[in-house]
Amino acid sequence: MFIEELKLIHYRNYENELIIPKRGINIIMGENAQGKTNLIEAMFFLSRGYSHRASNVAELAQWDHDDFFMNARVVSKEVKHTLSAKSHQGKRQFLLDGKIKKRDKINGIFNTILFEPDDLKIVKEGPDKRRRFLNQEISGFRPEYHYILRDYEKILNQRNSLLKNIHYQPSLITTLDVWDEQLMQTGVRLMNHRIHYLHRLNREANNLHQVLSHGKETLSLSYLNNIIDSLEELSEIKNLYKKKLAASREEEISRGATIFGPHVDDMLIQINGKDARRFGSQGQQRSAAISLKLSQIEIYYDNTGEYPVILLDDIFSELDEHRRKSILSLLNKTQAFITCTEDIVNEGDVRPENQHIIEIVKGQVRKINKL
Ligand SMILES: Nc1ncnc2c1ncn2[C@@H]1O[C@H](COP(=O)(O)OP(=O)(O)OP(=O)(O)O)[C@@H](O)[C@H]1O
């Protein structure tokens, strides 16, 4: 899968810009605040239908404009598609080959994997960042997961409101069983997806981490879930879930919140057997986050039969030469976009044939594909 052309009109700092990327590695080079991340964001937006850094779509429109338009020509399994997005006063609309489509209908047309500086939080910060990572990545290639998650969140909210209301109106307790059943059904489906995904991710991320660390470190991931203690209990998950809900009913009513279920899941990330969050160095945590993200390359390939487009925003800062080279070598089957403030090829060295420069100067794309 690759992108042949990207057009941006009144989007962020771009008035009217046409970018013709190449297959291989596209280095988006420019000083700070030139619009490098904005380009990455545009491709991510077309791919997933939302921005990874703006919660309000209106923010994407160029200042003093109510509308923006973006258009990409993408090639997927040798078929060309035109994917467009437009927004008017913060209301977005997507078009595939000229026809208006719902956001979920554009999923899978243009798959991207994004690494952004905030991804370090997956390793460094609390469980919500790891759940967000799991949710985003699984939804990327399993659209049904997005709907299960949405249903689960709806049921969870309704059940939590009911628990709060029972506190004041105890007769409502008779309706709780129906919600418990729905919670368990969607909760088990969600957990099953996460377990399968983590199994595959564990293998792939460890392979990559070994490459990045010169074979000196192992990376392992374990699923932390408050219903089952180990994967051996998986066949019993529904019964265990039922028991936990029954045993915690009184406490849940007094707290007005659901205590057990995938909404409190976590993933333990260990480097050489030690919790990376507590004991990992900055460099180790960075490499672990990169390994987790870049593992998606092969996982997407297994699931879709095609390599996704890789978007790497500021991945190279603070990484040594070996790690940089290893990352570049992992990208050789894909089309990739890498932002950086300086060229990644040292002066005097020959640029590899698969590397192309997109240079941004004064907020505009200046030289495209200079070799
Ligand atoms: N809606 C908007 N309209 C116009 N310009 C905008 C808008 N949103 C952001 N910008 C401009 O885009 C610039 C930031 O662009 P971006 O985040 O892509 O920079 P960058 O090149 O990735 O920088 P860095 O190397 O510092 O990360 C801001 O300085 C701002 O001037």
Walk me through the structure.
The chain is α/β, with parallel strands linked by helices and 371 residues long. The chain folds into two domains: 1-111 and 309-371, Rossmann fold (3-Layer(aba) Sandwich); 115-305, RecF/RecN/SMC, N-terminal domain (Glutathione S-transferase Yfyf (Class Pi), Chain A, domain 2). The protein has helices spanning 36-48, 121-124, 127-141, 143-168, 176-212, 237-247, 249-255, 276-279, 282-294, 296-304, 321-330, and strands spanning 2-11, 14-19, 25-30, 67-76, 79-88, 91-96, 99-101, 112-115, 219-224, 266-271, 274-275, 309-312, 336-340, 355-361, 364-370. It has a six-stranded antiparallel beta sheet with strand order 2-1-4-5-6-7, covered by helices on one side. It has a six-stranded mixed beta sheet with strand order 8-12-13-3-14-15, sandwiched between helices. Strand 12 (309-312), helix 11 (321-330) and strand 13 form a beta-alpha-beta unit. Helix 3 crosses helix 4 and helix 5 crosses helix 9. The model has no long low-confidence stretch (mean pLDDT 93). It binds adenosine-5'-triphosphate. The site of adenosine-5'-triphosphate has 15 residues, from helix 1. Adenosine-5'-triphosphate (ATP) binds at residues 12-13, 30, 32-38, 59, 62-63, 339, 341.
